Amino acid sequence: MRDTGASVLEEQIGNEGEQLALICVPQARADLVERNPRDFDDLHIGIGELSTFCLHEEVMDRLVDLVIVGHEPEVNGAQGSQDLAADTCLLVHLAHGGILGGLAQLEVALGKGPDESAPPVAASDQGSLRATRAIEDQAPGGGLLYRPSAGHASRITARGGHARGVRARPRCIRPCGPGLATLHGVSSMKAAETALAPLMGLLTRLGERFSEAGHEIALVGGPVRDALLGRDLAKGGEQIDLDFTTNARPDEILALLDGWADTTWDVGIRFGTVGARVQGRECEITTYRSETYDPESRKPEIEFGDSLAGDLGRRDFTVNAMALRLPSMEFVDLFGGLSDLDAKVLRTPGSPEMSFSDDPLRMMRAARFASQLGFEVVPEVLVAMTEMSDRIAIVSAERTREEFMKIVMSPDPRTGLTLLVDTGLAAHVLPELPLLRLEEDEHHRHKDVYEHTLIVLEQAIDLETSHEPTSGPDPVLRLAALLHDIGKPRTRKFEGDGRVSFHHHEVVGGRMTKKRMKEMRFSNDMIDDVSTLVELHLRFHGYGTGEWTDSAVRRYVRDAGPLLTRLHKLTRADSTTRNKRRAAALQSAYDSLEVRIAALAAEEELAAIRPDLDGAAIMRILDIPPSRVVGEAYDFLLNLRLDRGPMGEEMATEALRAWWAARPATE
After folding, report:
1. How far apart are CA 562 and CA 57, in angstroms?
2. Domain of residue 378, CATH code
């Protein structure tokens, strides 16, 4: 049918699932370049019989080229014409696959025409995704779209409608939901197709397996978000786990995976989650669910659901509430996640208060995603995080620790840590951190310990890859950098001359680090490593300009043990002075210390320093049984070894006998 833009405003959009509109522009490309988009008065809208729940935005893919309209002025809602068909933004919507967005602007009822019905869409019009290069006024049956080759077709099965032989490119994501008629939406879809291409076989077969058994299944959450961001989901090393959601119950999931997956595990089955390894990838398949926390319990109450919409509505943030139905590859975005992904903002699908009440850990996730993705938390979510921060106390220490460490290990931990401190969450998770914000006294000026700590953390992160030997993200080094000064508030003293001192804060801080990390349920090994680094981080400052003896250098190496490389990096990172001359002097002094350590190591194998006599030799020479005295003799010989260097068995034996003879007699 043919009508002007003005007359197509008479009807409202009807049922999305009834009909599918095909739109074409009667002018050739050259004509469009010369015309103003506001002269858009010859729009053809063909109402056909293709019926599908998911609006086939791909039918319009690139029908109007962006180059034609890319330089037209943008018009916002306040500036736009009341005649939406004449709005300059319209062609942009139509140019980028926005069938739904375009018709929303035109307000044309699907399944109806303003004046008359159009003939059914002929089979020849039901082509693949690419528009013909010549955009002309074509009657139905004229071949508006390219027709695919025989091996290029895959039948689309749609929810809520019927398929009529529509052919689409394999591995093509079919958008469905609000906010997709945008430039970013199109580029995000293409990025997602590229990111998911290596996984298409797995996704298709898994989807078909569940579909054939009468169940729904969808890829959901982080993998969908990361695919839309163009991240590589299939690279070597640490692969991103694949999360799926389904209406199948846990026992049905296990039955479907039995004999097909490489292996399965049911550690989380009481929460509705079945783990599996499929084609070498870690997968978690979870039954549709909702979960809430009882105010007096640390464990969530799980209820299974029956719809994908309900499951997505319970997700933490809109950017994680998008899904990809399998095997149809239908993209589902019911809460504007793609728009928020484009704007780089974090908001909840529902009210943040209800979301955080259901699972308080989501407040820490907001800080984590801000650090990991560089997203901004919207004001209403920040307000809820602040007002409900005490709710985090109901979450187990293990869960808060894992979320906290994801912030620390992110590319930008400062952002997430600042959110924790500003909202009050840190006061419940790591209360020592906000206490570093020491008040400045006008008569006792000293640098802000909190800001200094964040700078040290950032410099330690830089040294992970810039100082030999290099490493990947190092949790021990990063935690030590974050906690190295937590003893300062407890040891702060205002001296009579106006100075502020923190005597022995490294020793106090080491003890505080052990206590806090135990409460956060870190492993014993990690607690020992981090607290040791905190306790040793000031040791270098006695080195001066190289006054240490070889004995002192040996002790430094011995006390650091396997943490020596991390201690090097932590000590260097701890230099945050703005005095360039002092900063250069400190770095030069530490360069000198590392050179001396390397030279001594080459001579004496410092990393494995041992006394010249072992325990068995001590007992034989002194003729004593195993006892505490053997340990004392061992320590004496070790210190002697550090002071004098290698002695040899004969000299060590002589020294041991002299020590034994001079030892006071005991009862």
Report:
1. 59
2. 1.10.110.30
* pLDDT at 229 exceeding the cut of 70: yes
Residues 6+ apart with CB under 8 A from 214: none
Domain co-membership, 303 together with 401:
no
Domain count within the chain: 5
Q: For the chain, state the CA radius of gyration.
A: 34
- Tell me, yes or no, whether 408 lies in a domain: yes
The per-residue pLDDT for range 257-289, each reduced to its tens digit, is 999 999 999 888 888 999 999 988 999 999 998
- Domain holding 209, by residue range, is 171-343
Name the DSSP class of 544.
T
Write the CB contacts of 517 (distance below 8 Å, at least 6 apart in sequence).
479, 526, 527, 530, 531
Cβ atoms 118, 109 nearer than 8 A: no
Q: How far is CA 340 from CA 33, 189, 202, 211, in A?
A: 32, 15, 28, 31
Burial of 432 (0-12, 13-18, 19+ CB in 10 A): buried
Tokens 């080094």 correspond to what residue?
477
Amino acid identity for residue 238 in this structure: E
559-586 per-position pLDDT tens digit: 898 999 999 999 999 887 777 787 788 8
Same-domain pairing of 114 and 52: yes
Residue labelled with tokens 């004969």 = 650
Mean pLDDT estimate for the chain: 74
Tokens for 414, please give them. 């400062």
**pLDDT tens digit sequence for 66-108:** 333 334 344 344 343 344 344 434 443 343 334 333 333 343 3
Look at residue 638 in the predicted model and tell me its pLDDT.
86
- Assign residue 610 a region: left if phi > 0, alpha if psi is -120 to 50, beta otherwise? beta
- Please enumerate in sequence order all residues whose Cβ is within 8 A of that of 186, keeping only pairs 6 or more positions apart, or say none: 96, 97
In three-state secondary structure terms, 555 is: helix
Q: What is the total residue count of the chain?
A: 667
Burial of 627 (0-12, 13-18, 19+ CB in 10 A): exposed
Q: Which helix (H) or strand (E) holds 23?
A: strand 21-24
Residue ending a domain, choose from 290, 308, 343 = 343
What pLDDT, on a 0 to 100 scale, did the predictor assign at position 2?
A: 36
Q: Cα–Cα distance between 187 and 477 in angstroms, integer?
A: 39
Whether pLDDT at 35 is above 60: no
Cβ neighbors of 31 (< 8 A, separation 6 or more) are none
667: in domain: no
